[in-house]
Every structure is written in C-alpha cells, then in structure tokens.
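YM 10:42: ATP-dependent RNA helicase DBP9 sequence, as discussed on the call
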Amino acid sequence: MGSKRKSSEATASNTVSAPAASAAASAETQSSEKMTFDSMGLDQRLIQAIARLQFAEPTLVQEKAIPLALEGKDILARAKTGSGKTAAYVIPLIESIIRIKESKPDEKAVRALILVPTRELADQCLRLINNLLPFTGKLVRAVNIAQNVAEPIQRSLLAEIPDIVVSTPSRVLSNLNNSNLSAKGITHVVIDEADLIMSYGYEDDLQAIQKQLPKTLQVFLMSATLTADVNNLKGMFCRNPAILTLHEEEAADADSGKVDQFIVKCSEFDKFLLAYVIFKLDLIKGKTIAFVNDIDRCYRLKLFLEQFGIRSCVLNSDLPINSRLHVVDQFNKNIYSLLIATDDADQLAAEEVPDDTNASKKSKKRKLKDSEYGASRGIDFKNVSCVLNFDLPTTARAYTHRIGRTGRAGNSGMALSFVVPSDKWGTHKASSLESAKKDERILRRIEKEQQKYHGAEIKPYVFDMKQVDAFKYRTEDAFRAVTKTAIREARMKELKQEILASEKLKKAFQENPEELEQLRHDRELHAVRVQSHLKHVPDYLLPEAGRKSLVKDLGFVSMRKGSENRIRKARALHRARAKPKRVDPLKSFKAKKVTK
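YM 10:58: structure's back
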C-alpha cells in the first residue's frame, strides 16, 4: 500500500505544469525562511482579520495550498483532521473574490460554490468566512443555504446575489434546477471532506451540478484520505491538479499536537463500570467526547451516568439541526464537559449493502442522505482533552477520524478505547452490542494502520480492577434502572424537548441571541427509578492510595444546619437569660424530707 502511495504522488507531480511542479517541490522541502501570511501577498484587510483570529502562522497545509491557489491552480489536498484545511481554501477564495470585485466593481454574480456533506459543516464554514470578512465591509458576502428552511427563504437569500454560497450538493442542485441560483459567473468550486461527500451518496448530484457549471473553473478538493471516490471527483472536476499529500513527519514538525492512544480490554458490562469510575472520580481532566455506535446506546449511557449525578449532553442524528449546532457551539464554549455522540455517517458507510441490484444501491443512498450527520467528521470541536471510544468503531478509518477530534491545532490529547475480547462478548446480554463481537479484528486493523501511516503506538491502559471492583455493586444497581422502556421514553422526551427548543432557537438566533445561553442540552432525562444515594461516593469505596488526591478531606460533617436562623438564635439566647421557673414540689416528686 505504501508503494501505491508513492506511485500516485509521482504521477501527480508529472501531471502538474512546470510552475506548479516547482511550487510543489518547494513545498515538499522546508525552506530556511518560514512563510507567513504577510509574505503571501494577501489583501491587508484580510491579513488584519487573520491577525484578529490569532492565526500566528500558517499551518503546513495552508503554507503549501494558499500560494498555489493564488496562482490559479486546481488543488487536491490530503491532510489530517484539525490541520486547518478549511482556512487553506477559504483564505485564497476570499482573496481572489476581492481582486475580481475591485477590477469589476459593477459586475454582480455568484463567484464561489462550497459543497460540504453536512449542515453542521456548512454552518462551521460560513462562520469562518464571516470571521474573515469584518474589514471588507460589503465587498464580499456569503450565505448558507444548507439549513432546513423553506424555498422562499432560500430564494430571497440568493436573490441578493452573494459572492459565496455554502451548501450541500442536493440543496445546490435543487436551486440550480429552479433557477434560484445561476452558475454562469461561478469561477471557484470547493468540495470539502471529498471522501465523505461521496459516501453520503451525493455522486449523482455532483455529476448533475458539474454539467451546469462553466468549463473554466478553479477547483479545490479537500480530504483527510485519498480514496477511489476522491479520484473519481478529481476526474470529474479537476484538470491538472496540484496534489498535496502531506507526509506525517512533515505534519509532526509543523504541528506539535500529539494524541496518546490507549486501550482497555474489558467486558461489555465493565465498560459502564469504568465509565462511572473515570467520570465520577475525575480521572480525566478537561472536556471529553464519548463515542458510541448507536442512538439507543447514547441514551443508555446518559441515563446510566445520571444515576451518579454525572451530567452530559447527547449529539446524534435524531436531534433537530438547530439543536445539534447549538450543542456543538456550547460545548466549544466550555458550558458542557462531557458529550456523548454517535458518528452515524461512518457506521452507515461501513454497512455491507449488496451491489447486485439497483434497488439496494438506491436504498443505501437514501439511507445515507437522510442522516446528513457525522460527529466524527468535519465538525470543529475545540479544546477536547480526551476522546473515549466507549464502543470501538467498525472501521479503522472511523477510528482515525474519531481521535482526530482531540490533539488539534498543536494541542495534545488522549484517546482511550474500550475493546471487548471475543471470549467476553455476550457474557452480559443486557449491555452487549452486536458490533463489539468484531472488536479484536478491528483493533488489529487499527493498530496496523496507526503504526504504518501515523507511526503511533496504541498502549494498554491498566486499571487496578481490585479497587474498581468495589464500585461494581453500585454499577449493577444503576444499570438495572436503565431499562429499554426507560431508554425509549428518554429518547422521546429528549426529542420533544429539543424540537421545542429548536423552534425557540430559530427565533432566538434572529431576535435575542443572549437568550441562547438559557437553553441547555444536558438536562437530566431520569430513568424509571431514580436512586439519589448513588450520586454520592462513600469514603470507604475510594482507593486508599489516591484518596487524598481525589477528594478533599472535609472531616466530620454534621447533619444539622451549620448556621442557625437569626430569630431562633435570639430566642435561644433569651431563654438562657430568663429566670428559672419555680417548681411545685407536689408535682415534681422531688420534694426533700423535712427534718426537725
């Protein structure tokens, strides 16, 4: 496989024109002088916005891609998650539009089309574009038509003729077909997360869009992996693209971020036990994303942790798009520290669908397009300390994208994965998951890929199970309360709450942005049987060696109220100062004998 990569890179360098080849060669070898945004010849208004975003210096993919893009070259860039691929195409895109608008100020047209696989990624991309436009006034405008809004609203957004349109392929195609969007003036097309956009079943939509676009275009294909689908897109849209395949050693030099990877081999039930111990005793510091493999599992883990007073919010394809965007936004603002997420896109892509009938292909396409969601891809989660693979993903590629949520932008992170050995699978049926049956096989693929392409070693993380076993009876007590009925009711309750909140969010985004802080997503859903005593950890359960570091010794805590009421205190003082009452000796039975 390594030889294939080398041959593909060699082929790519042969197809690039002489200036592009020399530029690519110079990008391959680190120059003695470090490139900066100022040295790229960007507009000063754009440089000012970049400085405001505190982008100190370009990342590796930005350093290589932006100069080539400004020369007008088509680009196919493969770079790891969190390497700054979005800014690598947005910055030269805005620069090119500024130049066009200043040379042709009276000509109005949609200049750039950015195609993304999910609505979350569309919103994230538009946010970055707007953050780069505060000093350009109304010279450059961008809109996002990927949101689930009515056609008249889309028509009104496009009627103002924005310079940049961000959307999913299906929404762009529908607006091209009903003439809301004109493709005549488009000069740039970006396909972000190119490998994922094909796995969603957008191939037919992309082919239809390509037929309506002008012949002379500058195309950017951005992807974390170079697959056969990406090569198909290259043949469909590009002509002589500059292929930037960033080597891992170069990325390591340019980005000091490191992800330490660990695994724990345990039974299905022990996953819940270890999750309780980890989060209740704060063994992981900072924000955590816990990935599970289906939506029911998402709510089972949330309800289980609620029994111990551990708050979390969920992120899955069931939730309305506005709620999903709000969850991500508030998680990035550190309002929540634990997020339980599913990555439906990668799980659906891993399903085996027969290819012998057209019906099966159509059903696969429909199923993938209906979700338009994937938490492990594209979404920019900020300052994530740990990714917990509560359920091991079903593919090695999905594992790579999951752990890419941490260790971003030069920060370090940790990835911890629970792996179920084949001899322990099915020993606890209530907690078993079908996909866990193949954990050992998937783990071997993951270890091989991480070692081969990333030079990373996955180490065992050893828990002292003798100390952990002390918490087992509490785990069993909490797990029994989380029944299938409780999960179904919690899922319905969460969906109803979020639908109502989503309607409020639509208005709040437009009218009262400050009210968004009052809409929280980590409210308790409650299982059928709430056990309040589980929220407190008895001192005798804590490991003796780490007891002082885990909890502060408060000493004896009285059950009585520490500070008395002011009025009660005054009354008590008054009684103490009052004269003692005279006691009737005939009623006290304590009369002393009188002697003569």
